């Protein structure tokens, strides 16, 4: 039986505000991520998607529950897990060249092997020949590709992504989605993606998890039964894509209505 590469069990996360009050972000979140699976998390604004991802990565300790990476409790960022954040311009070191930025992800390897891995990673994301450029010399989309290369250079078991394409234009976003799909298809890593874009979640994923409003739980799991490989025009023009988009969007909007007390409900 295949075991999950990442398991989140009854996760609870509470944060203390400056005034000393305690805010519960997640109430009871459980999920499994299987090897080489692509799962996206969506939900209304403020539902704790990023907090959940940070706890899954070992960046924020939970108040309750447990996170397991390959069966081992997570207390810090485990080896074999890589993260790509939304703000690519803050995640890259501006004083290092692109090549040296990517090499940070392989710093434990011998020099020759590290150089080979960096070269291969840059080629995979279409940045071959940009090794000696600096992040501030690249466009936003190229900077995010560099961040992807740095995340992939260590051959992770899991790639966690926190709204990685939210800060780029629509055409660049589509291109980066396809870069990620190509990397994922050619490798063995699993992906857990947080996004506010329902269409993106459906286009990329095997499953989409919908969070409730804060304090959040998993309201629904939607299986994405679209054939692979996928492409931006063909896949998004399918009737089934539209049906899945409507289903997931309705669940997210329903969770948002509950949060603001519409339809007689109180958060």
Written account of the structure:
By secondary structure, this protein is α/β, with parallel strands linked by helices. The chain has 2 domains: 162 residues, P-loop containing nucleotide triphosphate hydrolases (Rossmann fold); 64 residues, no CATH class. It contains 9 helices and 10 strands. A 10-stranded mixed sheet has the order 5-4-1-2-10-9-3-8-7-6, with helices on both faces. A hairpin with a 5-residue loop joins strand 1 and strand 2. Helix 4 packs across helix 5, helix 5 runs parallel beside helix 6 and helix 7 crosses helix 9. The longest helix has 21 residues. The radius of gyration is 19 Å and the shape is globular. It starts with 5 loop residues before the first strand and ends in an 8-residue tail after the last helix. The C terminus is likely disordered.
SSE arrangement:
Layout: E1 6-16, E2 22-33, E3 38-42, H1 49-57, E4 64-69, E5 72-73, E6 81-84, H2 88-91, H3 98-103, H4 111-124, H5 140-152, E7 158-162, H6 170-186, E8 190-194, H7 198-204, E9 207-211, E10 216-223, H8 232-236, H9 239-259
Parallel strand pairs: 2-10, 3-8, 3-9, 6-7, 7-8
Antiparallel strand pairs: 1-2, 1-4, 4-5, 9-10
Helix pairs in contact: 4-5, 5-6, 7-9
């Amino acid at each position: 039986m295949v075991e999950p590469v990442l398991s989140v069990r009854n996760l609870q996360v509470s944060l203390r505000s400056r005034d000393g009050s305690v805010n519960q972000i997640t109430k009871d979140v459980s999920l499994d991520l299987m090897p080489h699976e692509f799962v996206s998390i969506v939900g209304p604004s403020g539902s704790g998607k990023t907090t959940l991802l940070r706890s899954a990565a070992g960046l924020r300790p939970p108040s309750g529950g447990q996170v397991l990476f390959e069966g081992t409790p997570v207390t810090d960022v485990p080896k074999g897990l890589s993260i790509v954040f939304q703000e690519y311009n803050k995640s890259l070191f501006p004083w290092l060249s692109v090549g040296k930025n990517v090499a940070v992800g392989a710093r434990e390897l011998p020099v020759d092997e590290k150089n080979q891995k960096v070269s291969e990673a840059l080629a995979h994301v279409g940045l071959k020949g940009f090794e000696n450029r600096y992040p501030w010399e690249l466009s936003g989309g190229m900077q995010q590709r560099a961040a992807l290369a740095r995340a992939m250079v260590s051959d992770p078991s899991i790639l966690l992504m926190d709204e990685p394409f939210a800060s780029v234009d629509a055409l660049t976003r589509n291109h980066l989605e396809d870069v990620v799909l190509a990397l994922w298809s050619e490798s063995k890593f699993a992906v857990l993606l947080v996004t506010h874009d329902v269409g993106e979640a459906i286009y990329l994923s095997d499953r989409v998890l919908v969070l409730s409003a804060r304090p959040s739980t998993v309201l629904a799991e939607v299986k994405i039964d679209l054939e692979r490989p996928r492409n931006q025009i063909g896949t998004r023009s399918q009737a089934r894509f539209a049906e899945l988009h409507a289903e997931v969007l309705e669940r997210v909007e329903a969770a948002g209505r509950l949060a603001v007390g519409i339809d007689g409900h109180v958060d």
